[in-house]
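Support request from a user on the community tier.

User writes: "When I paste my structure tokens into the form, the page sometimes reloads and wipes my input. The last time it worked, I copied everything first. Here is what I submitted, just in case something in the input itself triggers the reload:"
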């Protein structure tokens, strides 16, 4: 499988200025934060940033994306996340109110497979599966432009 460049921006939500950029990751999933991003998390204020990253696919945010907003290492500095797909699709999401458990990603994957009967369109299946976790964990997400 081809590894595509993933880029993460931290924008200050008050003025829209870029506070940090991480653009050296070629992993299939996930983002490696550089010192610029780690320092922004360390020195930022509560809910100061909007995290924007690309999905080399057109998929909505993953459960991992949502869980990542509330990671202790971010010190509560990220208020919202945005994902942008290579097809121009955009999704917004918030951190979860409850901490994710160790097996939640596994359970999410199992639910994805079970929901494949809903549609042959994997984006629709992922949106429906993510919606199943909204009330349980207290986050929000949506597609921009729909």
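"...and here is what came back when it finally went through:"
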């Amino acid at each position: 499988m081809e590894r595509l460049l993933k880029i993460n921006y931290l924008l200050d939500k008050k003025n829209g200025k870029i506070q940090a950029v991480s653009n050296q990751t070629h992993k299939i999933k996930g983002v490696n934060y550089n010192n610029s991003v780690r320092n922004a998390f360390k020195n930022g204020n509560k809910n100061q940033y909007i995290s924007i990253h690309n999905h080399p696919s057109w998929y909505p945010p993953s459960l991992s994306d949502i869980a990542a907003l509330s990671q202790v290492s971010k010190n509560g500095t990220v208020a919202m996340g945005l994902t942008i797909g290579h097809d121009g699709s955009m999704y917004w999401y918030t951190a979860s109110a409850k901490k994710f458990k160790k097996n939640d990603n596994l359970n999410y994957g199992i639910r994805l497979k079970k929901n494949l009967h809903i549609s042959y369109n994997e984006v629709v299946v992922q949106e429906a599966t993510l919606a199943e976790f909204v009330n349980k964990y207290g986050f929000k997400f949506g597609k921009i432009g729909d």
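Agent notes: The reload is a front-end session timeout and is unrelated to the input. The beta strands are 6-12, 18-25, 49-55, 78-85, 90-93, 141-144. The radius of gyration is 15 Å. Escalated to web team.
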